[in-house]
Design a protein that fits this description.
Helix content: 25-40%
Distance between the termini: 80 Å
Largest sheet: 8 strands, mixed
Shape: elongated
């Protein structure tokens, strides 16, 4: 019996998806269900050099609505462009849409760009606002073992005159060690770290330029 090429492709895709759904840490014996594993999205950079003086007294961060893969605790993978699924027995400890801005806040505090870095809603006032949108955060398995892909869009605003002074998207892809949830989680943290490595110097430059151009 011969199968049509489209049928063969569909069968292979189904087998890959089924395998990936179970490709996370499993414990237990016999017929027990695999344990649910939880992973911490992290900024794995070494301690950064701190500025001698902050550029501004305070900076606010605001998380914007995120891509669906970042607005859930489940780890997402993508077998084909514009197609997503989720690891069955793996979750983030916190949704990336909330975790990513918090990690960026910590990185900016360590760098000393502002005297204080706070999230919108916290009891803080600032003339400068940085919005953060998570455009992508998933395990691309179109070619195994895959790539961890992260994309962020950030915008810097002068709140005094309600103007946007800078905008940029940052992207990073890191090869995964294995086509599994643990491999995806580790590589996604590494990819996020790379986006921060590019974002922070950019923000330093743009904030210096904006402060210098602002009316005294």
């Amino acid at each position: 019996m011969r199968f049509a090429p489209r049928l063969i492709t569909a069968l292979l895709g189904s087998l890959l998806s089924a395998w990936l759904l179970t490709a996370c840490v499993s414990v237990g014996l016999g017929s027990e269900a695999p344990a649910q594993a939880h992973y911490l999205l992290a900024d794995t950079a070494a301690p950064t050099a701190r500025r001698a003086q902050p550029l501004v007294p305070a900076l606010l961060l605001q998380a914007l609505p995120a891509d669906a893969s970042a607005d859930t605790a489940a780890l997402a993978y993508s077998p084909r462009p514009n197609e997503f699924a989720y690891y069955q027995f793996a979750q983030w400890t916190e949704r990336p849409v909330r975790r990513v801005p918090r990690l960026l806040q910590q990185r900016l505090e360590a760098r000393g760009l502002a005297g204080a870095v706070a999230m919108v809603g916290e009891p803080a006032r600032a003339d400068w606002l940085l919005t953060v949108a998570v455009d992508a955060l998933h395990h691309d398995v179109s070619t195994l073992p895959g790539q961890a892909r992260v994309a962020l869009t950030v915008e810097l605003f002068d709140r005094r005159n309600r103007t946007r002074v800078a905008r940029r998207q940052f992207e990073a892809s890191v090869p995964t060690a294995s086509a599994t949830a643990p491999g995806a989680a580790a590589a996604l943290s590494a990819a996020l770290t790379q986006t921060f490595d590019a974002l922070v110097p950019w923000l330093d430059t743009e904030l210096q330029r904006a402060v210098a151009a602002a009316p005294k």
